[in-house]
Every structure is written in structure tokens, then in C-alpha cells.
């Protein structure tokens, strides 16, 4: 009999890839979506006939309890969050409600409805913030640098607490940045990929960015959802760092992206103080050796391949749009 999985945040980048991954493994997949006045199913439009979508909200405890009662999943992947750091500085309380307390609401619902459910929490390398050692591993102390990072630390620890206090099979995946053509447009990789494509096609003259010296451990998102699933298939629940083990600067991303379309980024990229952050995370790099050892997981796509595939995806989107005559 096929397993049932519930994904919160199914309309997001990771939710859409995880849904594809689980459907490919014969799961029945239900996605939790929040009510909005217009549907936001762009990333899952190709899947909607194979999925069930149900409304509930991380802000509403009873809606999550009812959802679990109706779906009775064996696995819950909690990917929903307010995930953009600049917004977390502007809306710190709302970010705390979704990204921190939202985790407790899901865990409470699991405890009430079916404590056998296996739970995955989407934790983040942003918890390491002002890094206390390099590379960062599961035991590296946290020092978050944004309301988002602080909220994720809460989510991480409440997951561990429910595991220890109530014996839940609850895992926290500390994922480093992972990107794809489905990444939110405001994140720096997608913004650079789109900018390089637009400038090369003569649609824009320049791309405006913030701190080009920030370094991240950037991997390819479809590979990362496999790691989430692997965590829930183990005999014991645990926490894992997931990343490539390399880091690169936003400047290097620009260099490769613009070179891919035959341009020199120095002629096309301008620094705009509007995109600087009140407190920055300068550099992140994973030590994914535990995941490799215990989960048999390792990243496959190189930094150069990631940059090129993202720029190519933007070029083909823009060309399609042009052919359709919509800009
Ligand atoms: P996205 O921002 O693309 O997706 C976030 C999802 O959360 C969307 O589906 C959004 O729904 C949903 N959501 C937000 N608030 C609520 C709410 N109140 N109730 C229900 N759903 C809600 O994130 P990603 O896919 O990139 O990331 C997935 C998770 O992994 C997030 O928790 C993120 O913080 C975390 N993470 C991501 C990393 C990355 O590099 N991508 C790195 C480490 C952690 P809607 O479409 O309605 O807005
Ligand atoms: P984050 O790691 O979750 O904050 O992912 P982002 O893609 O939003 O940012 C990665 C890094 O790129 C951060 O250190 C940003 O300060 C830096 N960065 C530089 N310019 C920009 C920009 O224009 N937009 C965004 N989002 N980030 C930028």
C-alpha cells in the first residue's frame, strides 16, 4: 500500500520538488495551502492532477489538527515558512509566528492526532549566522543574524524537544542554500540569473545588487529534497547538515552568470545600498560528512553547472514570453 505524506509549503520551491520526488516513489501526496484571493500554484501546476491540496494555515492550530485527522499521513514535511530574510527584518513578529511557532503548532497536532507520524523540520544554515567554526556541522553553536535565523533556531530546538520529551520521530534538516529555476525571484541566485539573461537580451541595462562579497554554500534544490526523505527512512530520528561543502561569493555567481551570456559582470552589475542588510551573514560552508556517512547522500551538481542551468532557464522563459508577445 502506498504511503501518505503531507507537505506544508507545497507551493514553494522545495515543496514542488518534494511533491515530484514522493509521487515518483508512489506516495499519496497532500499539500497544505493557505487561503489566498488568487491561486499561487505556478510551481505545482504540472502536478495538481496527481496531488490533493487542502487549505490550512500555520497560524491556525485547529486547521492543522483537522487536516491531520482527515489525511492521516505517515510522514509530515514542514516546509512552510516566511523564508526571505529582508522581509524578516520588516515583519519580525509575523516571521516568528510562521517560522517559529508554526513548527510547534504542527508538532502539537502530531502529538494529538497520531504520535507515530514521522516529522521533518526545514531548518536552515542561517542558524549559524556569525559562524563559530568553519565548516559548519551539526554540533556547531548557533549565532543567528536575522529574525528569520532566530525563528529557525526556535523551530530546530522545539523539534528536538518534542523528540526527547514525547518520543516523536522528529528530524531537523539543517539545509544550506539550495537553488533552482523555481527559487523565489528575490533571492540572489535567481535575481542574478534573471538579470544576466535580461541584460544579454537587451531588456535591462544593469542589475542592482547588495553585498557581493557574501559567501554561501549553494546546491541544487531537487537533490536536497531527496535528503529530507532519507532522514525519515532511518531507524532513528536525528539532525543532519545538508550542503555541498564548498562556498562561493555572490560576485563569483555574477562572474559566471554574465560570462555564460558573453558579458563581463563588471560592466553590468551595480551595487545598490538598498539591498544591504542591517546585519549580514558573511560566509557559510557545510560539513555534510554525517549525511554522506549515514544517509548515503551527497550533492551532485557543481557550482558552475548550477549557475549555467539557472541562466539557461531564465533565457528560455524570456524567449517563450517574447514568442507569446507578453514582454
Ligand atoms: P519558499 O519561500 O519558496 O516557500 C515557502 C512556502 O511556505 C510557500 O509554499 C508558502 O506558501 C508557505 N507558507 C508561508 N507561510 C505560510 C502559512 N502561514 N501557512 C501555510 N503556508 C505558508 O521556501 P523554499 O521552498 O525555498 O524553502 C522551504 C523551507 O526550507 C522553508 O521553511 C525555508 O525557510 C527552508 N529553507 C530553505 C532554504 C533554501 O535555500 N531554499 C535553506 C534552508 C532552509 P505561499 O505560496 O502561500 O506563500
Ligand atoms: P539567504 O542566504 O537566505 O539570505 O539568501 P539570499 O539569496 O537572499 O542572499 C544570499 C546573500 O546574497 C546574502 O548575504 C545577501 O546579502 C547577498 N546579496 C547581495 N545582493 C543581494 C540582492 O540583491 N538580493 C538578495 N536577496 N541577496 C543579495
Write the layout of secondary structure elements.
Layout: E1 4-8, H1 13-24, E2 28-33, E3 52-55, H2 61-71, E4 75-78, H3 85-90, H4 92-113, E5 118-124, H5 147-166, E6 169-175, E7 178-179, H6 188-200, E8 207-209, E9 215-216, E10 219-220, H7 221-232, E11 239-242, E12 248-249, H8 250-260, E13 269-271, H9 289-295, H10 303-323
Parallel strand pairs: 1-2, 1-4, 2-3, 4-5, 5-6, 6-11, 7-10, 8-13
Antiparallel strand pairs: 9-12
Helix pairs in contact: 1-7, 2-4, 4-5, 6-8, 6-10, 8-10
The protein binds NADPH dihydro-nicotinamide-adenine-dinucleotide phosphate and guanosine-5'-diphosphate.
Provide a brief overview of the structure.
The chain has 327 residues and is α/β, with parallel strands linked by helices. Helices cover 41% and strands 16% of the residues. The protein contains 10 helices and 13 strands.
Describe it.
The protein folds into 2 domains: 4-179 and 218-242, NAD(P)-binding Rossmann-like Domain (Rossmann fold); 188-216 and 247-284 and 301-326, UDP-galactose 4-epimerase, domain 1. The strands form 4 sheets. The protein has a 7-stranded parallel β-sheet, sandwiched between helices. The chain has a two-stranded parallel sheet with strand order 7-10. With 327 residues, it is α/β, with parallel strands linked by helices. It has helices at 13-24, 61-71, 85-90, 92-113, 147-166, 188-200, 221-232, 250-260, 289-295, 303-323; strands spanning 4-8, 28-33, 52-55, 75-78, 118-124, 169-175, 178-179, 207-209, 215-216, 219-220, 239-242, 248-249, 269-271. Helix 1 crosses helix 7, helix 6 (188-200) runs parallel beside helix 8 and helix 8 packs across helix 10. The longest helix is centred in the N-terminal third of the chain and has 22 residues, at 92-113. The structure holds NADPH dihydro-nicotinamide-adenine-dinucleotide phosphate and guanosine-5'-diphosphate (GDP). NADPH dihydro-nicotinamide-adenine-dinucleotide phosphate (NDP) binds at residues 8-9, 11-15, 34, 36, 40, 57-59, 79-83, 98, 122, 124, 175, 177-178, 184. Residues 8-9, 11-15, 34, 36, 40, 57-59, 79-83, 98, 122, 124, 175, 177-178, 184 line the site of NADPH dihydro-nicotinamide-adenine-dinucleotide phosphate.
Amino acid at each position: 500500500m502506498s504511503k501518505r505524506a503531507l507537505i506544508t509549503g507545497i507551493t514553494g520551491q522545495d515543496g514542488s520538488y518534494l511533491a515530484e520526488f514522493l509521487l515518483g516513489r508512489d506516495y499519496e501526496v497532500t499539500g497544505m495551502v493557505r487561503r489566498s484571493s488568487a491561486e499561487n500554484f505556478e510551481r505545482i501546476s504540472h502536478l495538481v492532477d496527481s496531488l490533493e491540496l487542502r487549505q490550512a494555515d500555520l497560524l491556525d492550530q485547529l486547521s492543522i489538527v483537522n487536516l491531520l485527522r482527515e489525511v492521516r499521513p505517515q510522514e509530515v514535511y514542514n516546509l512552510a515558512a516566511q523564508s526571505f530574510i529582508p522581509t524578516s527584518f520588516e515583519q519580525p513578529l509575523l516571521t516568528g509566528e510562521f517560522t517559529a511557532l508554526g513548527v510547534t503548532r504542527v508538532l502539537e497536532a502530531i502529538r494529538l492526532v497520531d504520535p507515530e507520524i514521522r516529522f521533518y523540520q526545514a531548518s536552515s544554515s542561517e542558524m549559524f549566522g556569525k559562524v563559530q567554526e568553519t565548516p559548519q556541522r551539526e554540533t556547531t553553536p548557533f549565532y543567528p543574524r536575522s529574525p528569520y535565523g532566530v525563528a529557525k533556531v526556535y523551530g530546530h530546538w522545539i523539534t528536538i524537544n518534542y523528540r526527547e520529551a514525547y518520543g516523536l520521530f522528529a528530524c531537523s534538516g539543517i539545509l544550506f542554500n539550495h537553488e533552482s529555476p523555481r527559487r523565489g525571484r528575490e533571492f540572489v541566485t535567481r535575481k542574478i540569473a534573471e538579470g544576466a539573461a535580461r541584460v544579454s537580451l537587451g531588456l535591462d541595462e544593469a542589475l542592482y545588487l547588495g553585498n557581493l562579497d557574501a559567501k554561501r554554500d549553494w546546491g541544487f534544490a531537487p537533490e536536497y529534497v531527496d535528503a529530507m526523505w532519507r532522514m525519515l527512512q532511518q531507524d532513528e530520528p536525528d539532525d543532519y547538515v545538508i550542503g555541498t561543502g564548498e562556498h562561493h561569493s555572490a560576485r563569483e555567481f555574477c562572474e559566471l552568470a554574465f560570462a555564460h551570456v558573453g558579458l563581463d559582470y563588471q560592466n553590468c552589475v551595480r551595487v545598490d545600498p538598498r539591498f544591504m542588510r542591517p546585519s549580514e551573514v558573511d560566509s557559510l560552508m557545510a560539513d555534510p560528512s554525517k549525511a554522506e556517512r549515514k544517509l548515503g547522500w551527497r550533492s551532485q551538481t557543481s557550482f558552475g553547472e548550477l549557475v549555467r542551468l539557472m541562466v539557461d532557464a531564465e533565457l528560455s522563459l524570456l524567449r517563450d514570453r517574447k514568442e507569446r508577445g507578453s514582454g
